[in-house]
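LOG
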Amino acid sequence: MKSLNSKQSMVSSPFPKTIYCFSPSGRLMNLEMAEKGVDFLKQQGFTVLNTTIFLREFERFAGSDLERATEINSLYSQVERYGPMIALATRGGFGLNRIMHLIDWEQLGQAVKNGLRIVGHSDITALQLGLLSATGETSFAGPMLSYDFGGLENDSKDFTYSHFVEAVIHQTFDIQVVSSQDFVTSSVDIKQAVIWGGNLSLVQNLVGTPYFPKNIQQGILFLEDINEHPYRIERMLWQLLDAGILGSQQAILLGDFSEYRLTDLDQGYSLKTVVGQIQKELQRRGCNTLMLMDLPFGHIPKKITIEVGSEVNLQADANGYRISKSS
């Protein structure tokens, strides 16, 4: 049985509760869901800005390449105008690959230094890793407006929201995953390692580009994906392995991989066998990288929020693991 324990702080915070919506990827498919997300956040005391973009669209995207890139580049001036704020992605999909070269990374990094906190997941992984690579600044792999705050049932929404507040507003992070870890044979204690990653397809896609984080050896890489059969997941993991990325990490945290369908062809082949194969190959190559399962993150209703590029501590054994922000 899997369970998650978390220390949650709901005390008031001096951080201004201003959310600026941005749509760098796919167009909104459900306007009502996005509006429900806005209503929910307003009920929590947030001021929600830039909602007129909900109707913006071009083909499958939330606007033209130039419109979407300009919106990201405008975040610096928005922080100057409104002060410290949260830039919350409306949804993921696809689109950031087309505009990475149009982003003013130095200016975006300065906006983060001035109080901008970027939040999202899925396709937003590209923006987060590009920011980390170009500037070393952090961002937050977490919920998005439409699905997470507008489309979830209350218990899932409350869980996701509380972790969002804990990480983004209070800047704390401390979770414990209680779940049998088949690939852990002894207790492990990792201190002050950079946690980074996100959507596996995007992480793999950025390898060899200027947007892939540099010099993150001995880090903790977290991964998730959706609609990818285990053989596709294995293929992407092999690229990261052969590129020297997996073996350079102290630990790999695997989140949710779902919405794929196994067939008779698989004959017992599964995500678990994929992880076992990768772990075996890491060991054969003399790498001590730890493989951990069941991180509550990904395209799932109940998700934690992770500060990408921050330093964390990790303690793990065969019964589970704990991750906490380094002091």
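LOG (cont.) second protein
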Amino acid sequence: MAVSAFQRLAYNIFGDRFRSKARKYYDLRQDLQGARMDVTFEMYLSTATLYATIIGFVSIVIALMVVHVFWVFDIITVALSMLTGFGLGVLTYLGFLVLPVMRMAQRKRDIDATLPHAINYIAAMAGAGVTPLKIFHSLAKSEVYGELAKEARYVIRDVDLFGRDLNTAIKNVAATTPSQKLQEFLQGVITTSTAGGELEPYFKLKAGAYMTEKRMVQKEFIEKLGIIAETYVTAFVAGPLFLIVILSIMSMMGAEIVLLYLVIYVMIPMGSGIILLMVDMATPRA
């Protein structure tokens, strides 16, 4: 991965501080590998520290300028400005620590979503007599399978550039991939290959199992979606409509219209937001 001048500067300033703490940041190193961010943990933390320092310092300066223009410049406002800058710097650093975890979660969803189709593709190629190494080469070149293709590229990298055998390369990817399903599949490939078994029946078996699982998940989602739709129509369409009619009639008779405003501007938007959240939570990620 190309290293920017900013990253080199950060590493020169803070690199030694983190290099001796490799054991302390073991989880971060695993997260960076799983996120495929292609950067050492020392450089990543150095970059995070420099960004946090700059943002914190700039925030303090801006806060002091704002205080000087709009408020009384005293010890309390200065302290608040310092705390604001420090807080923004800490949040920046924490954001860098959370970023690999978020990328891992996104990659896991992408891999799990394409895995059943990719295994069908792998099984078809194996049935045509294509060797496992060529199958991974073909999978790595495909743009259809997204993050799964990237995992295949790491297998090919270990074989072609580092001179490792295919089983070792697959084992390395299986140990660092964020997808539990892909890890199980790759471990099965290693076990079958090591035992001298045929890979084609294994590929077909896993392809059928994953597609069946995917169909079951989609069926459950459709059933949940139907229940949510019925709830939405009953609670947030028919119900509010009935209330609006009743409250409108009452307002014409001189009653307060506060409840009408609450229904229109609070109840209906909040209800719609809750339904959207329920749909998002029910949507299968794979």
